Amino acid sequence: MIDGVVGVIIWTEDLERLLGFYRDTLGLRPYSVQPGFASFKWGDMRLGVGTHSHVVGKTKEPFRVMVNLGVSDIHAAYDLLIAKGVEFTRPPEQEQWGGWVSTFSDPDGNTLQLMQLAA
Question: Which single residue of 11, 54, 67, 72 has CA 20 to 30 Å from 116?
């Protein structure tokens, strides 16, 4: 029935601030930018950021949904983002399943994680 996840959208009231963070701070290259919406694409997977009339202010439940951003070298990515002013709530730590995870938030308070899969 369901073949997989093809996308995630993060809604905001301030697209320019959020787009700037994902594009300029995280270094993601936009696939499409339209009035009120931008998306990033990896293969068939898309991450969107956009404005929504029912979204006001920062998230009130930052741990409800976490977006995991894949990296091949979590320590290098962590150091680069620290240098860009990103504040992490969890430095890179190895999980019992062998991969590495590090946690931070976007400007709206949405929880993001760097994830390096086990070799």
Answer: 11
